[in-house]
Amino acid sequence: MRRAATKKAEGATEWGRRRLLGILVAAVVVAVLLLGGLGYAVYLAVAGIGEEASANTDVATGETDRSTVAQGAVHRDEVAAEPMLAVPESAAFPAATPSAKVPVIKVPAGTGVNGPAFVMTGFPHTPEGAIGQLAQIDLAVLQSMSLTTAAEVYNAWALPGGVRAEEWWITASVQAFLTSTGMGEVKDPSASVSLEPAAALVKGTDGPDWTTVCVLMKVTASYKQEGQIAFAHCERMQWVGGRWMVAPGAPPAPAPATWPGTQLAHEAGWRTWSTDDTTDPDHIEGDH
Fold first, then answer.
1. Mean pLDDT of 111-124
2. Has residue 9 got a pLDDT over 90?
3. Distances in Å between the alpha carbon of 10 and those of 7, 121, 148?
4. Does the residue 38 lie in any domain?
5. Which sequence ranges are marked TM in the entry (predicted)?
6. pLDDT tens digits, 195-228
7. Does the residue 87 lie in any domain?
8. I want to staple 211 with a disulfide (CB 3.0 to 4.6 A). Which of 3, 9, 205, 215 is the partner?
9. Overall number of domains in the chain
């Protein structure tokens, strides 16, 4: 009886908070490697993922001047591929945030209407609208943690000319999470994953119909224990048929996963997320 009790205690320890956090980190790191293969592996080695934050100031921290005239594929590839601040894995864990005022980005609320694959749509034809749409795409997939949902969402929201659904950054993250937890193709009913958009940035634009944007999420995962981590994601986005879609081309350089509101997040260029409720059709002028 004592031996059985000991084994039970060991099992409980095995599924402690540290292991859950390790799985969340693995989901991000493995996704990067699966996404770009050798190319991204080299990038990680050069950028120093898992080490100290890069001192290199020649990194993308967000665009301030918007491009009004499209320059074409070469410029778009340059915007997407420009490296961002390299940060250690520990930067993604909850940390104290300074009280100083931080830059804010106003993201439209959308119309609340579900589009293809039950992803909320109705975001305006602006880079901030692209941010709002990308966040909804991420939320639909990551909260379900289902490979089937990931494929359905990607196929409904990605234009031809990009990676395949199974090579998509978010699909790879879901696969890594499910594999690490041994859950199969969908998450265990007792597990939950919730996301909160916390920050964003516009990495670059090329005319009014194309942009590369990035979102930073607070992820809370619960499976026998609870843990939190920051999750960052950049995508090329293109305005087609009245909505923002994932654009063709190679995936952008990995975004820095920093806990929102920290000094390192500020150095990486993240702007604190603020929902612009004036774009909500239910918004009534004068409401507070």
1. 94
2. no
3. 5, 46, 34
4. yes
5. 20-46
6. 999 999 999 999 999 999 999 999 888 776 777 8
7. yes
8. 205
9. 1
What pLDDT, on a 0 to 100 scale, did the predictor assign at position 177?
A: 79
DSSP3 helix / strand / coil % (the chain, rounded to 5): 40, 25, 40
- Is the alpha carbon torsion for 29, 231, 219, 138 positive or negative? negative
Determine, yes or no, domain membership for 286.
Answer: no
* Any domain includes 288: no
Tokens representing 10 are 């060991």
CA 63 vs. chain centroid, Å, equals 18
What are the structure tokens assigned to 49, written together? 């993922």
pTM of structure: 0.79
Terminal CA-CA length for the chain: 61
> Domain range for residue 122?
2-279
Residue with tokens 């843990």: 227
Q: Which helix (H) or strand (E) holds 14?
A: helix 2-14
Question: Cα separation of 63 and 116, whole Å?
Answer: 30
- Residues 217 and 208: their CA atoms lie apart, in Å, by 26
Crossing angle of the two packed helices 169-181 and 127-142, in degrees rounded to 10: 20
